[in-house]
C-alpha cells in the first residue's frame, strides 16, 4: 500500500512539472498560476481518494477465558466428600448395665444419654420407640421433650417393670425422625431371679486303678475320665492316645450341673510308657490330660 502511494505521488510530480513548463513557455504567468492551482486541487483530490481507499482497520479484541473458567480447566471437578448424615446418634452413657439382676415385679427406670452427631435438629416431633424384644411395660412411643441441636446431648428415660418369671429379658428402642427414618439401637437387658451360670466343663479327672500295669500283649488298657459340667447342656468329646489310637466324637447331655464318667481303651502291643487325653469340643474347645501310665508286657 505504501509503494502504491509513492508511485502516485511521483506521477503527479512529473505531470506538475510538465504542466508548469508548458505554461511558462506558451501561456504566461496567469496561465501557469491557474494550472498550478488545478494540479494542486487534483493532487489533494487524489490524496483524499487514496485515504478513502485505505481506511484504518481497528483490531478486534480476542475473547479471553474468565479466571473461573481457567481454574476449572486447570483443576478439574471438585471431588465429592461423604457428607455427615442428617440423623446420627452417639451413645455416651446409661443406667442399669446389661445383666443387672431384678426381683420379679420390680419397677425401675432405664436411661440412655445420646449425643446428636448429625447435621439436623432433633425436634419434638422426633420419637423414642420400642422396636423388638421384651417391652417390660415401657411406653411403646414417646416424643422428645425439647429440640436437640447438632452437638447437644439428651437423656432418654423409659419406666419399666421386671417380669414375674425368672429368666433373662431384653428390649430394644430406637430414635425415629419426623420423616419416619429410624436410627440408633439401644437396649435394656436384665435377669429376673438368680441368673443361670454359664454352661461349661469345669474339670476332667482321670482314673486308673494302677499306672504301672503288667499284662500280656497285645492288650486293651482301660482309662476312665470324670467330666464335670457347671449347668445343663450337651457335651461333645473325643479321646486320643500315644499308641496312635483315637475315638470318634461322642456326646452326653446334662440335665443339670453334675458329673459323668466316660471310658476308653488304649491298645498296647509292647512294653513302654503310654498316655491318653480327652478333648472337650463343646462347650470348651479344650484338651484335658494326659494321664500317663507304664505297661510291662509279660509272656
Summarize the structure.
The chain is an alpha+beta fold and 299 residues long.
Task: Explain what the structure shows.
The strands form 4 sheets. The protein has a 5-stranded mixed beta sheet, with no helix packed on it. It is of the alpha+beta class and 299 residues long. The protein folds into 3 domains: 2-53; 89-192, Immunoglobulins (Immunoglobulin-like), CATH 2.60.40; 201-298, Sandwich (Immunoglobulin-like), CATH 2.60.40. The model is unreliable at 19-36, 42-59 and 64-75 (pLDDT under 50). The chain is 20% helix and 44% strand.
Largest sheet: 5 strands, mixed
Mean pLDDT across the residues is: 82
Task: Using the alpha-carbon principal axes, give the shape.
Answer: elongated
Count of discrete structural domains: 3
Sequence stretches where pLDDT stays below 50 over 5 or more residues? 19-36, 42-59, 64-75
Structural class: alpha+beta
Annotated CATH homologous superfamily of the largest domain: Immunoglobulins
Count of individual beta strands:
16
Strand neighbour order, sheet with most strands: 2-8-7-4-5
Q: What is the count of helical runs?
A: 3
Beta-strand content: 35-45%
Percent helix = 10-25%
Please give the radius of gyration in angstroms.
55 Å
CATH architecture designation of the largest domain: Sandwich
How do the SSEs run, as a string of H and E?
Answer: HHHEEEEEEEEEEEEEEEE
Q: Ends: how far apart?
A: 138 Å
CATH topology of the largest domain: Immunoglobulin-like
- Report the CATH C-level class of the largest domain: Mainly Beta
Amino acid at each position: 500500500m505504501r509503494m502504491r502511494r509513492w508511485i502516485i505521488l511521483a506521477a503527479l510530480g512529473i505531470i506538475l512539472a510538465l504542466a508548469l513548463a508548458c505554461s511558462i513557455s506558451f501561456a504566461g504567468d496567469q496561465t501557469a498560476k491557474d494550472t498550478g492551482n488545478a494540479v494542486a486541487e487534483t493532487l489533494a483530490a487524489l490524496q483524499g481518494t487514496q485515504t478513502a481507499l485505505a481506511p484504518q482497520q481497528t483490531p478486534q479484541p480476542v475473547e479471553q477465558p474468565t479466571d473461573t473458567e481457567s481454574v476449572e480447566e486447570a483443576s478439574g471437578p471438585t471431588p465429592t466428600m461423604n457428607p455427615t448424615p442428617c440423623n446420627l446418634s452417639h451413645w455416651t452413657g446409661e443406667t442399669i448395665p446389661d445383666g443387672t439382676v431384678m426381683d420379679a415385679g420390680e419397677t425401675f427406670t432405664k436411661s440412655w444419654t445420646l449425643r446428636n452427631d448429625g447435621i439436623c435438629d432433633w425436634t419434638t416431633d422426633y420419637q423414642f420407640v420400642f422396636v423388638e424384644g421384651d417391652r417390660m411395660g415401657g411406653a411403646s412411643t414417646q416424643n422428645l421433650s425439647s429440640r436437640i441441636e447438632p452437638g447437644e446431648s439428651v437423656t432418654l428415660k423409659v419406666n419399666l417393670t421386671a417380669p414375674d418369671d425368672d429368666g433373662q429379658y431384653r428390649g430394644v428402642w430406637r430414635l425415629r425422625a419426623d420423616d419416619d427414618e429410624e436410627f440408633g439401637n439401644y437396649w435394656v437387658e436384665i435377669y429376673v431371679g438368680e441368673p443361670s451360670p454359664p454352661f461349661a466343663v469345669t474339670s476332667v479327672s482321670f482314673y486308673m486303678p494302677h499306672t504301672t500295669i503288667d499284662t500280656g500283649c497285645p492288650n486293651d488298657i482301660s482309662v476312665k475320665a470324670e467330666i464335670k459340667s457347671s449347668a445343663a447342656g450337651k457335651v461333645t468329646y473325643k479321646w486320643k492316645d500315644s499308641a496312635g489310637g483315637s475315638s470318634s466324637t461322642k456326646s452326653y447331655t446334662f440335665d443339670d450341673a453334675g458329673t459323668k464318667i466316660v471310658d476308653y481303651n488304649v491298645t498296647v502291643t509292647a512294653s513302654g510308657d503310654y498316655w491318653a487325653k480327652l478333648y472337650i469340643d463343646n462347650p470348651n474347645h479344650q484338651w484335658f490330660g494326659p494321664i500317663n501310665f507304664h505297661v510291662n508286657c509279660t509272656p
